[in-house]
Each structure stands twice: as C-alpha cells, then as structure tokens.
Structure prediction request, 327 residues.
Amino acid sequence: MARILSGIQPTGTTHLGNYLGALRHWVDQQDEFDSFFSIVDLHAITVHQDPKDLREAVTHLAAMLFAVGIDPQRATVFLQSHVPGHAQLAWIMECTASFGELSRMTQFKEKSTKTEFISAGLFNYPALMAADILLYQAERVPVGDDQKQHLELARTLATRFNTRFGEVFTVPEPQIPKVGARIMDLQVPTQKMSKSSSQDSGIIYLLDPPELIKKKISRAVTDSANDLRYVPDDPLRAGLRNLLELGSSLLGASPEEVASRHSSYGALKVALSEIVIEAVTPIQQLYREYTDDRGELLRILGEGAERANAVARATIERAHAALGFLT
Ligand code: AMP
Ligand code: TRP
Prediction:
C-alpha cells in the first residue's frame, strides 16, 4: 500500500471548508493508502499561542478527526510533538535548505507582514513541513493548493539530500484536489471560507446547531437575478455558484444538476440546509462521545504516536548514518 501523509494545524474551530476540502478526502483515502495524519502543534507555535487555547484546539481537532470518520485502526493519527523525529529531521532540513529558498516562500512573506514578532520558526516552517513528510517516506501528500510551493521545496530537499549523501528519502508527490474543493464565505463569496479572515455569519462550523446552520444559509449572499443556473465565471454570481458547489460536493452530483432540482434560490437554500444538517449531525454526535472521554482520546493518540515513532526512528537512523554522525 502506498503511504500518504498530511498535516493540519490546530488553530480555531473546524468548518465546512476544512471538511469538504481536506478531512473528507482523508477519510475516503484511508482504505486505499497507508495513511498518516498529523496534528501539527509544532507548526502552530511559529506564531504565539496561548497554552490554554492550544490545548483546547488540539483536543478539538483530535476529536474532530475521529468524529468525521478517520478510523484509528486503519489510519495513524498523532500529534507532531509526540514524535521527536520531527524536530530532529527539521534541523537537518534547515541545513539542507538555503536561506534564499526559504526567503522565497510566499506564505512566509504573507504571514510575516501580519505579525509584529517574526519568529525564526516562522521562517523555517517549510523545513519542518519537509521533515514531516520525509520522516515517513510518504509517497503522496494531500494538500490544498496554497501548500504547493512548500511541497515543491520538500521535493527539492529530498532530492538534494539523496544526491549529496545517498538515497535516504522518498521524493513525495503532491495530491491536490480538483477544482470546486474551495468552499467560499457565505457573506463574502469571493473569499475563501476561513476562520482567520471572516465574520462567523459567513462560516459554517461543523459544531453549529441546526437552527444556526439554517439561519446562516438562508442569509447567504446571492444576487438579484433569480436565475437558478450554474455560471462559474461570473463574479457577480459567486454566491449562487458557491451554494451550488457546496450542494454538489455534499451530494456527489454536478452543480448543474443541483441547480436543475430547484425552482428558486429560496428552495435551494432550504434543501441545502437540510443536506448540511444531515451531514454534520452524526459528526456532532461522535464528537461529543470523544470529548466526553478524554482518557480514551489520549489513549488513541498515544497508540498513533507509537506507530509513528517506529517509522520515524528508522528514518532518523538512516539519515544520521548517511550524514556521518556516529551511530
Ligand atoms: P487551515 O485550517 O486553513 O490550515 O486548513 C486546513 C485544511 O482545510 C487545509 O487542507 C485546507 O486546504 C483546507 N481548507 C481550509 N479552508 C478551506 C475552504 N474554504 N475550502 C476548501 N478547503 C479548505
Ligand atoms: N502547512 C500545512 C498547512 O498549513 C500543514 C502541514 C504541516 C502539512 N505539515 C504538513 C501538510 C505535512 C501536509 C504535509 O495546511
């Protein structure tokens, strides 16, 4: 079985964009691939985190990964900080990457303008991400479009290390979801649904109660044409497009087909609310079970860390031997 690895940052609360753009694909892939999914708490501290908030965000995300259907028997789910190999290999990757390469990362350029204190970790972030991937010899990495440049760097670093020191790392392939996997804000439909940029009314959180979901969808921005068709390239109709794509993504039907099933924007919104509520209700139920039993949650994460550590240690040993460290 080919191995995949992906990481997700424990910041904020999981929303429908995270689910449809990432988590649901992870769930679908766990039978097909030897899957490793990491909650990347080391990446989170590249910007300041309040310890209490971080603890909550990690617990929330861990419970959510299992609630959406990732099966700890089939997939290895673990916290990055539970596997020392990430920090160990990150250092080696920092010594493999050049200052120039890291300086060209667009995410660093963006993020560093937003914070007053620019940590050295924020600059080295892509080297840690390369380590996350190479540590497990992952063949494929499911990521969003925004992570393409980081993944390209991981490939460059793997190849460079192998050329200098001998074949140690598998060169990973990106796996980027097809178009349409981008869920937009319900209030500002030209902007990605994202906890960092938007007001809550534009975001559907997986834990939103049914009434709130109905309210958010009924108030979603559309247009005054009242012409229920899928017109993907008209920016004035981005709101309708987003609703149709949301429906399409949840139902597995084309956006055109979703459009043809309804006679008005109002009817579409009512139907969409029902579909979303139907999708999140079982997730919310399972989420409660996992958060009610934190002991069990920690036990499962401990098992994941053990499996991850076994793979990580073998890679570190090989990398150290190749570098000439005495082993
Ligand atoms: P983030 O919380 O932004 O770090 O994203 C976590 C994962 O969810 C990444 O794989 C993103 O690509 C995905 N994601 C975040 N927001 C959206 C969105 N609005 N539509 C689709 N995928 C998203
Ligand atoms: N940087 C990724 C993001 O912000 C998260 C991440 C960290 C990751 N390590 C990874 C993704 C390894 C894939 C593989 O979304």
The chain has a mean pLDDT of 95. Residues 229 and 259 are 6 Å apart (CA to CA).
